[in-house]
Amino acid sequence: MRKDDLCITVPTFFRCPISLDVMKSPVSLCTGVTYDRASIQRWLDGGNNTCPATMQILQNKDFIPNRTLQRLIEIWSDSVRRRVCVESAELAAPTRDEISDAIDRVKIEKEERDDREVLSKIVRFGRESDDNRGFLAGKDDFVRLLVDLINQVDFKTTSAAKSLVVQEAVKILSMIRTKISDRRRFSNLILNGRDRLTVIVYLFKTGNVELKIDCAGLLEFIAVDAESKLLIAERDGVITELMKSISKDSDLSLIESSLSCLIAISSPKRVKLNLIREKLIGDVTKLLSDSTSSSVSVTEKCLKLLEILASTKEGRSEICGGDGECLKTVVKKLMKVSTAATEHAVTVLWSVSYLFKEDKALEAVTSANGVTKILLLLQSNCSPAVRRMLTDLLKVFKVNSRSCLSAYDTKTTHIMPF
């Protein structure tokens, strides 16, 4: 049994053999087996004349209340209720006044164990509501205090308690990051002081899934301009770890946060070229093709990455390379995913087929029945920008959109791509 996050083990002999629930009114049959009164009554009312546990034929159907067992169950239930009340009170999120006092007590020179207990309390408080997270982000010097806690740490020599303090600080910063009003100032705090970026990257490499997600979120948030994006992307191991985190075997939330981070840091050309050299396009194609590890959000982010990388000659070459598998996968995602996915997919096709007229792109799109889907999309409620790109694509494929659309109109009604 579970009471929120409290685990309760029920003694086996307190459970009814029929319902497997804790017995409310235990009664024994002539066979000596005890059942909950309601469960055994339903069994007998159903026309059965045997003991459900032993399958012996009942000599009589009389019930004998098992008062000893009932008393034991009552004593156990009372103790469980008391435990739940105590532990629920301990797990309850603290008040704002308590948090304010806790923040005042957090000092870098204090014992790490005390810091971790206070920070754990703050984590519970922040998870309670959006307002609580806003309260924490707006608290005087609290963000600076957390940033100072993640100064350069040698995790090979530092104490376990100090390591846990740093992890708690990263969790809180990630949790409240969207409530931080001055994003650029926060980015500078992380990137310009005592190599705190190294600590976040190390935790991203070595942490559990939850901590990896928090670190990826922080890295995305501090990527505010070309300089910060280059600093993050060119830090040793970042790209490798992000790409490892988008494998089909990874946690879905980790895949989404890693893709968001890759999108955030990928705008500088140097980063794009590095991502292409690391074969990101192939990994993204596999992710798009794998229905088990893909969601609408993952699909949108994958297509957005391809759109970004298609702005380079090297990226277009990779997208159109091989047997055109990447482009064929993009064509499959043109419809019935989401508006954003359609826009990203159309932009990819437009970049490689119309804007830069890659011959291999035309072949791949045609073989994947892309022209038909383009025509169908033109009949949908797509945005003006998407409609212009679709019209451009039809010109490349030398298709007369008016005549083709007239032919489709005789067979179909209004078609929605989503």
TrEMBL record:
Pathway: Protein modification; protein ubiquitination. Residues 9-83 form the U-box domain. SMART domains: Ubox. One of its GO terms (molecular function) is ubiquitin protein ligase activity. Its EC number is 2.3.2.27. GO terms for biological process: protein ubiquitination. Keywords: Repeat, Transferase, Ubl conjugation pathway. It catalyses: S-ubiquitinyl-[E2 ubiquitin-conjugating enzyme]-L-cysteine + [acceptor protein]-L-lysine = [E2 ubiquitin-conjugating enzyme]-L-cysteine + N(6)-ubiquitinyl-[acceptor protein]-L-lysine. InterPro entries: ARM-like, ARM-type_fold, ARM_PUB, PUB22/23/24-like, RING-Ubox_PUB, Ubox_domain, Znf_RING/FYVE/PHD. Gene3D superfamilies: Leucine-rich Repeat Variant (1.25.10.10), Zinc/RING finger domain, C3HC4 (zinc finger) (3.30.40.10). It holds the Pfam family ARM_PUB. It comes from the Eukaryota. Functions as an E3 ubiquitin ligase. This is U-box domain-containing protein. It comes from Arabidopsis arenosa (Sand rock-cress).
